From TrEMBL:
Compartments, record wording: Apical cell membrane; Cell membrane; Cell projection; Endoplasmic reticulum
Predominant localisation class: membrane
Family: Belongs to the cation transport ATPase (P-type) (TC 3.A.3) family. Type IV subfamily.
Compositionally skewed regions (Polar residues) per UniProt: 1160-1169
Cofactor: Mg(2+)
Protein's name in the database: Phospholipid-transporting ATPase
Amino acid sequence: MDEGVKYGETELKMESVVTYVRRLLGREKKKEEERHLRANDRTFNGSFRYTNNAIKTSKYNIITFLPLNLFEQFTRLANAYFLFLFCLQLIPRVSSLSWFTTAVPLILVLSITGVKDASDDIKRHRSDKQVNNRKVDVLVDGQLKKEKWRNVQVGDIIKLENNQFVTADLLLLSSSEPLNLVYVETAELDGETNLKVKQALTVTGEMGNSTEVLGAFKGEVRCEPPNNRLDKFKGALTVDKQVYSLDNDKVLLRGCTLRNTEWCFGLVIFGGPDTKLMQNSGKTKFKRTSIDHLMNILVLCIFGFLATMCAILTVGNAVWEVKEGSVFTVFLPREDDTSAGLSSFLTFWSYVIVLNTVVPISLYVSVEFIRLGNSFFIDWDRKMYYPKNDTPAQARTTTLNEDLGRIKYIFSDKTGTLTQNIMVFNRCSINGKAFGELFDFSGQRVEITEVRKNTDPGFVPSSDTTLQSFMFQQGFSSSLVISGELHYQAQSPDEGALVTAARNFGFVFRSRTPETVTLMEMGRKVIYELVAVLDFNNVRKRMSVIVRSPDGKLLLLCKGADTIVYERLHPSCDNLMKVTTNHLNEYAGDGLRTLVLAYKDLDKSYLEEWKQRHHEACTAIDGREERLDELYEEIEKDLMLLGATAVEDKLQDGVPQTIEQLAKADIKIWVLTGDKQETAENIGYSCNMLREEMKDVFIVAANTADEVREELQNARRKMCPDAAETPHVTTSRAGLFWLQKTQTVQDEKVDGDYGLVINGHSLAFALEKDMRMELLRTACMCQTVICCRVTPLQKAQVVELVKKYKQAVTLAIGDGANDVSMIKAAHVGVGISGHEGMQAVISSDFSFAQFRYLQRLLLVHGRWSYLRMCKFLRYFFYKNFTFTFVHFWYAFFCGFSAQTVYDEWFITCYNLVYTALPVLGMSLFDQDVNDRWSFRYPQLYSPGQQNLYFNKKVFVRCMMHSWYSSLILFFIPWAAMHDTVRDDGKDIADYQSFALLAQTCLLVVVSVQLCLDTYYWTAVNQFFMWGSLAAYFAVSFTMYSNGMFLIFTSAFPFVGVARNSLNQPNVWLTIFLASLLCLLPVVAFRFILIQLRPTINDKLRHKVQMEALPAPAPRRPPPRRISTRRSGYAFSHAQGYGNLVTSKNFLRPLKKRTALFVQTDSPLAQNEPQHYRSIAEEPEGSQSP
């Protein structure tokens, strides 16, 4: 079973230690049940010991870095083992090797890892410092004073100005806008770029911006404790013994941005880590790859194997001492206090030191270098560089590279991740005629995105009243805020796109008062009286306005979802409705967001009578909503159809192609978004995640737990009627010492493709303990899963659910602060540098600018990193087990005396010098096929998901291979040297000559084995390979020279061995024979395996040799799809906004206000204007290629 499922054990241990210490010191903070605070009273608020507004995402400080970092590093079993080994080597009677052979590599490993961890944490400290040192105006003793964010405390009153970030979670007190309204952008919280409206209480709004009055304000707030619910807030404000209810509309959350509001004042309720933004961020976890966890288990197994070998040799030593040892005591007497039993005990620990190379410490040094090198390749990849924003890809951590090659589930945000946060007016249908795309001479679609400064009256013929009516209604909006030079900001981003498009064609929304709306129609100023607004809600799915034109004509203008508006059309529109429906199906096939526009001429006498009943319904105490709905239904009948609009929630470049490639690699993509259901569905179809060819797309939108369970079960039974009612769960043991109990829900086969869409309310029920397995089973049967209206916490819970029960490697990708908890929860977190700030990037493991780069990160860099790491581990264990097993065989010929078969200097240099660089060269540059072939055949990714390249079985095969090689490398040289003489008759069968021959054979064999394992040769590989062999012979001749012996007699005893042995032909013949016997079976076995059971890599590598390099895939426009589903509607108003529009106090007198953006090239300014396509007429029924 896969071992890469449990992360964060270190944090849990450290958290428990810290909690225990705090409890001992009496400093453990009690759980807060209710927050009580008083405005402008730091003494009172300080008694509750609330946290200040400083945030901390770093892990260490100067004092805790050394102990915490060393604690984390020694949780690696191998590091603890080498520390124990170092202590053993300090005992003279046990150690047969010098202490520095272990101490130097151990210190090097700890230092390299410590420096890397310190570097990562310094970046986090800098990020925290940048945020904490921002300045804000704080009211202190009746005066506004600039303070750093970190010094803001609960109960302070602060002043925010336009385009400022909200400092903390605030209770809105007053604002510059009428009715004490403020407009905020919540993109970092919920991913939505449309403006939200917040409103202060009247009692606090009357204080205005008077610092004296605000400074004397002593209101008390009692509210809920800190929590992560973004959409709910409960509390009460007490002012002069009067209690006022507080809800979410009165609160500004940290992470929001103030828009179109000159100033506002707020009372700090939650600060720093207590804010809802930080409560949703999740804990920073110490992430480790699945290979790290597997290596911990393998190291434990190796320790057992090492103890077994040492025990066997200890028994051998005891037997030998009893039977043969007495013969040698004449000339090699024992020490006085040493018995045969004590000698055997000491021999056990001596062999622990001699055979410690089964787990060499250089393994971890090499692993860190390989990960660092592969991280640099990601940073340096020009094909992942986004020139528009000058943003390169960045590996923000160097410890997770190989997990990029094992991803099975991707959890993606929508807004800003799959889309660009830009609404583009794409096409429309007017009176049965389709208007839409432009094509060049070659048939390619042309996008015209620049905003037109001069209107084009020629587009709308003055004689065509239908076209004029359509553009008039499209340009008429009841919820726009005009900022700057006719830059529109609307509650609905779709409405902003429509109004801007109408402006470009001669119908310009200019201004509004509570009773009138001013338009410029084809250059002519026209003022309409706003009679009534029939507000939008999620049940009506439409919005209407009643207006009176200058000539006294009364019109009802309605826009909404096609299914809703069609039910209210006049029978005379049946034929037009059929034509428009065909156009809507085309638009839906392209994944566009649609609205249907209709109108109705009203009779004056009827409207007067209707207005009277409308007034009575608005003032009714009981049944107000029901009476209003009846009135709306009554007047919104017999509408005349004008046409339909299609707005594109513009995808990032290459998103559908990327999702298609990842799906071919058997990677499942789940979309977790805060947007509404219709928007999420539209994007699902645009990205080809949801397709018309699917057998069914299940919608789960129930309101109770039982209904959610029933809908999930019905979906599962339809997909797999024969499946058991209870899931098939496999229970097993995993982790260090096999103490962790894991449960795996097995995949169930489904015939055909299905999709699942579930909203946040239903997901909350589905994630409960008794229903989560049902959710997991149903979701995993589906090809596509889309969760909409989910909170940041729910995103993390979905990720944790899949991690726990699917035992698969997960990746989360997003661009906003609402994605941080999901990014931290997944095995690998990816942040996109987008329009929603840098919070996701700061918390991520990898980052880049565009979603399409994800396929290169996984299919190229991830797959190569996994392949290289697995090759490295296989080879490294092979060469070190072979090295160690030769010691084992030699023990039977040296009286089990713990004598080493090699020269001590060869033992020191074997892993650090002679074999280090060649394996690093392979592990950094090797590739089975290049990047183009990797893109062409995404199926190459599947072996990583199944963990085929390195697992326990592969490890056992490496041991068996090493065992065979060690037999050859010991007994062939031993037999060749036994009773052998030189050409001149002198004896050559001595220990030193045998040691030289054995180590030379070993080095030649492992070097040739590396050549067989290398797929891709570079000049660096060649240099490392031949350079290491040359270094071995050069060092050997130098160390075994007379000069070194004379200078350091005790350190270099092998004087003259190299020149006396390596000039003999039989020595070189022995090296050749041993190499042939070691490598020939490997070549033969691989040849037979490729012929009988070729892998996909084998097949493709053979194909690469036969075919030319594939050309880059041309970018073709997607084929036109005709959808039979009802098109999703483009509308995202908040209910109740119509009442504000018609309020007498809604708009203040028009006055010149400062420009929102002084720098036109600033990032904020770039986000402000929306760019929309121009429209050209196309013949009815025509289709693009």
